[in-house]
Amino acid sequence: MRTTQSIAIIGATGNMGSALSRSLAAGNYRLLLCTSNLDKATAMAEDIRKGNPAAMVEATDCTMEASWEADIIIVAVPYAAEKEVARRIREVANQKIVISIANPLNDTYDGLVTAPGTSAAEELQKLLPNSKVIKAFNTTFAADFATPLIDGRQVDAFIAGNDGEALQNVSELVSTVGFNPIVAGDLAASRTLEDMQLLLIRLNAKYDYNWRAGWKILHQ
Ligand SMILES: NC(=O)c1ccc[n+]([C@@H]2O[C@H](COP(=O)([O-])OP(=O)(O)OC[C@H]3O[C@@H](n4cnc5c(N)ncnc54)[C@H](OP(=O)(O)O)[C@@H]3O)[C@@H](O)[C@H]2O)c1
């Protein structure tokens, strides 16, 4: 069994941050829940331990210190806040895996704020040039974490990145929380993954399409 890895979850009390924290607590990870609302994160950590006394989970309001301690950093904040988060963690995130889950949606949820030919993940990589940015979880919904299944089969979770070892590590993390990891390509594939989620959201707005069902590529 591999050694326990520490994961800093920035934005841990948000929709995605809390879903990820609760699911990851079942794995062999030490979780550092980073938030500006320490009371809320402390209550969440206690609640996680109540359901799983073996869970290694701590709340902190110091994102930089937690990121310094962590092997993996999950940036679970709105895209607009990523520049500020990157500025805070840049010095301590060197050579570490940084997971970008963001969908850079505009205010009306019908377009992306990123320029053509780039993605939120690639922009984060530019801000953290010495980190291994991996795209993951942007095509899964916070609500899916409770039951990551469609018709009894695992929901697919797409991953993109440039570092093979980091992709392998994040694939294991994705499996731990119950999704089926699929490596979509290098970090530039994040453009497609972010477009895919925009499409789901637009179809839902137009046709009430069941976007909560997530993605499942059917194969024999
Ligand atoms: N919701 C979904 O189903 C879903 C699915 C896929 C991807 N995503 C992506 O996941 C990310 C988070 O979405 P969400 O729905 O979880 O949002 P959310 O519920 O609003 O939570 C975002 C968290 O970000 C933190 N935050 C905001 N500004 C910050 C800043 N300047 N510095 C540090 N932390 C900051 C807040 O934590 P504090 O309380 O500590 O400030 C907040 O709890 C977004 O990029 C979104 O595109 C969401």
From TrEMBL:
Keywords: Oxidoreductase. It comes from the Bacteria. The keyword Transmembrane helix does not apply. Pfam families: F420_oxidored. It comes from Pontibacter flavimaris. The keyword Oxidoreductase applies. The lineage of its organism: Bacteria, Pseudomonadati, Bacteroidota, Cytophagia, Cytophagales. PANTHER family: DUDULIN-RELATED, REDUCTASE. This is NADP oxidoreductase. SUPFAM superfamilies: NAD(P)-binding Rossmann-fold domains (SSF51735). GO terms for molecular function: oxidoreductase activity.
